[in-house]
Amino acid sequence: MDKLQKLKKAKIPGEATGIEVRKSICTICDPTTQCGLDCYVKDGRIIKVEGSLENPHSAGTLCAKGAAQRQWVYSEDRVRTPLKRVGPRGSGRFEPISWTEALDTIAENLQKLKKESGPESVVFYCGYPKQLRPFLQRLAFQYGSPNYCTESSACHTAMAMGWRLDYGTPAAPDLANTSCLLVWTANPLHSNTPTARRILDAKERGVKIIVVDPRKSPTAGVADIHLQLRPGTDGALALAMGNVIIAEGLHDKEFVAQYAHGFEDYKAYAATFTLERAEQITGVPAALIREAAIMYATAKSAAMQPSAAPVVHNTNGVQNQRAAAALVGLTGNFDVPGGNVVGPAAWLEFGSGFVTREHPYKMPRPWSDMPPRLGAQRFPVWTEMIDQAQAMDFPRQVNSGDPYPLRGMVAFGLNYRMFPDSKGWLAALEKLDFIAVIDPMFTDSGKYADIILPAATSVERTEVRAYPQKYVVYTEPVIEPVAEARSDTDIIFGLAEKLGLDYQTLDAEHTAKLGGFLPNGAPDFGAAFDAALDWMFQPNGMTMAQLKAHPGGMFVPDPPAPAFKKYQAKGFPTATGKMEFVSSLMEKYSDRPGIAGLPEYNEPWMSPVSTPDLAADYPLVLGTGSRLPMFVHSRMFRAPWTRSLRRDAMADLNPADGARFGIAHGDMVELSTPTGVAIQVKANLTELVPAGVVQMYHDYPEADANSLIPGDYLDPVSGFPGYKSLLCAVKKIAPSAAGAQGVAR
Q1: Spatial separation of the C-alpha atoms in residues 128 and 699, rounded to whole Å
Q2: Which residue segments constitute the domains of the chain, with CATH numbers given?
Q3: Closest Cα to residue 322, out of 161, 437, 194?
Q4: Band of pLDDT at residue 737, cut at 50, 70 and 90
Q5: pLDDT at residue 258, as a whole number
Q6: Model pLDDT, residue 579
Q7: Partners of 4 in the beta sheet?
Q8: Residues near 478 by Cβ (< 8 Å), separated by ≥ 6?
Q9: What angle do CA 401, 405, 407 make, to 5 degrees?
Q10: Coil, strand or helix: which one is 594?
Q11: What backbone torsions phi and psi does residue 274 show, to the nearest 5 degrees?
């Protein structure tokens, strides 16, 4: 083998080998990771990926998902051309069509539905992708539909609601400066490797770490104190910790006296959660609760690291999150160095030390100009706080037609299996007159579409991302899109043109061209994308031309100096102008079950405590959806590398429960819930889950865990599903009784 052949085999970039390194980002995990990518490209094809060392957020690291980037991009399941359904829904029978025919068909159907039933009859949905959201929301509202919704109907948003109900704004942990970190159900060693690295760095600096988690997660493994609570009892634990802090005189008396509303009511309510009662509810030893509360309250500085969803994936989720978040203000750790700090949401709701005009761009008309959106009556707190419809109400409204019929959907990244009662969700989808699905892959959801459009992946498109290190990246495609794929934003601009929508005027004050089209009528969607972003980024002075000059990203020029305790001058963005231990907004709807001004603790609707008779037949607590390091929902099931790490659908059981029910590791078991639905999976005996709990990863098509969850098992505040606390039963089944284990497609 000569030298050149060796260089090519080693994939060494250079003129001789024809290999070029091009910069991009990985958005398989989204939105708080976006690790930098060095893509090695030869002859227009990615042959290798590595982490970008200069990206300050990921610092050259990649998780298993990012390492499998090529298998994701070049998957055999890629949609390669626009498709039109020619068989019954679900049959998978489609024929290729042109982009012109596909966009014309979508536009014609949307105009027909708008004329017959009003624009509100069409739902615009975005699944896991984030970069297209401002553009899709703008498209929906200009079309006239209030029904823009996303997977945030079941992820992250309710956690942010908890913080906003307390403080008017979320606040992020200052990991670099804290001396004590309270990690509340987050497990970034599986879900967010950049954050995991910072937690491990903090551990090495001597930072004390408290982890709240029902599981013995890898993150709990590095904790000084692990509070291993019963799923769904977070609120009781938080209130007991607050009670200890107040009783010991460790709360910030000046803060609660000057800047808090409802403290005395909170104090009286928290006092009912004695250590003994908290131990009885949560299963955490009283002495350990007290030790953790004192450690957190007496630290020089203390920060709380929340997780996107586990706390709020309960029927009392937002209230539990409010109780946990209240500990930050109670101890004076809100908006202080080393505590939880407040910064502007720069781009895609992710803080990076600068402000944008994203909100006015995506809200071209007020809610008052449109009919009531999905979930408006059922979830009024959500409706007042969140600029989206609540997708969890979709099946009910489709089936009832109340308050108006839903007849169409345009969906980017639709995965019906991420919802509770996923079969019921699919049945509701099938009732629609028209469905368009945009996705890189031919998915099970796509099988029910009338039109499928092929979407580009992050390495095939342009997008802009911001990082907490005050760093911004503008990516260019490192390869041409696979086959006929197009970027999501190009598709949105194309639909806007076909629908004849005005993409030029934002409001009466700002009439500059915002994502418009060239005067000669030939669309230049790249120019439209840049024009829209230039307008949104105008307040901080950055332009897309400036960002393009730095392919690997750049630090924000002249970021404002950090400011702390901003509430002293500005107050809190709440109704009272104070941190609210008693929420003014929640009090408005306190006549509704599960909604109260105080962060009240309520048992999960189904639990060994609230429904003991039911628990006699379903003695275990089921949790679905916790991350595995190689999967994000169904995405990486398609990559052989990642799928091989857990090929079979498996339910995690504690060995004590295995012995209790006569189940050995690897046995086939039936997992069932009071819904009457059951799935068949293998048993994975592990100490990571406590006795009495079953953990089941979702999105295996052959074993759909979310089909076990009732469609109305929802938090009345946010509408979030109770994925983390439902009763279930397991029983061993004979191999001959087990259905064939298919491969996810």
Answers
A1: 14
A2: 3-73 (3.30.200.210), 83-155+349-555 (3.40.50.740), 171-341 (3.40.228.10), 612-737 (2.40.40.20)
A3: 161
A4: low
A5: 98
A6: 98
A7: none
A8: 22, 23, 24, 37, 39, 41, 46, 459, 460
A9: 130
A10: coil
A11: -65, 165
